[in-house]
Amino acid sequence: MTRIRFWAAPALLVLLAAGFCVTAEEKDSGYKVVKKIELGGKGGWDYLTMDSDAGRLYISRSDRVQVVDVEKGKLVGEVADTKGVHGIALAPKHKKGFTSNGQDASVTVFDPETLKETAKVNVGNGPDGILYDPATDRVFTFNARSQDATAIDAASNAVAGTVKLGGKPESAVSDEKGMVYVNVEDKNEVAVIDAKKLEVKSRYTLGEGKRAVGLAMDRAKRRLFCTCGNEKMVVLDADDGKVLATLPIGRGTDYAVFDPGVGLAFSSNGDGTLTVVGEKDGKYQVVDNVKTQQGARTCALDPKTHKIYLATASFKKLPEGQKGRPPMEPNSFVVLVVGK
After folding, report:
1. What domains lie within the chain, and their CATH numbers?
2. Are 271 and 291 in contact (CB under 8 A)?
3. Rounded distance between C-alpha atoms, residue 144 and residue 3, angstroms
4. Cβ distance 218 to 225 under 8 Å?
5. What is the pLDDT of residues 185-219, one digit of tens each?
6. pTM for this structure?
């Protein structure tokens, strides 16, 4: 996400009845866009983070974080002065939020109740992905330009150490048992970090997968779902790195989530599709490609409602012969809600 994707490139998303389960044999999963939350405003976007208990969605918006009440479908406030923000991590134990500010090598610590800044922490250069690891009570930033990860003690806000990654990190997940997994995009691999010792224990190669960006995990079955820029999802064994499946996904992916309640993985793709992957008899297959909207390449899951939230906007057309990123249409920013 360090290609300044908070400006939203154009190439650039479930509520199940009790006891109902989608299988990998179904051609139509039943997922669809069930609601649109129109927010407008200036600035692009990058990661989204869902606080399921509070019913709030946090959205990075270039220089601030917007906070949305998803039930009411309205903006409730903003975390200000987060320059080049990419992601948001929440540490419920301490009632704290953390943002990765890509333009000033810092993390903003904020109070989720008031949305006010309470501290600023210096980290590596170009912090992009960010997560909270409950096993070590640490927040990790994944710093693209310095090619490392910074660990922050969530209680004290002190930097606990740095992990050299040897490449440009992207999305990351925690197994919540002491290991953190992070895509190293330019090396086509997943680095496995001992979250306590702060060292890389293993490196998993991705086979056909190139330019790894999105990463999700089935913690119960110990499976990683890695989405790649060459329109592949690679399913890995989290313990030994064995490639279990390589599946086609939409173009322009930037994120992935896994819903343990329904046993499905999702890849949000900038071409306007949400690829749904399920398991049947031990084999992973594409269940569906849900139509969303161009540019909806990042997403967040609400594990309580099984809804998926995606961000996007409308774009102007470039003049004939002109190349590059077309500008957003004014006030067209929207959150798509995918469910059943």
Report:
1. 5-339 (2.130.10.10)
2. no
3. 9
4. yes
5. 999 999 999 999 999 999 999 999 999 999 999 99
6. 0.91
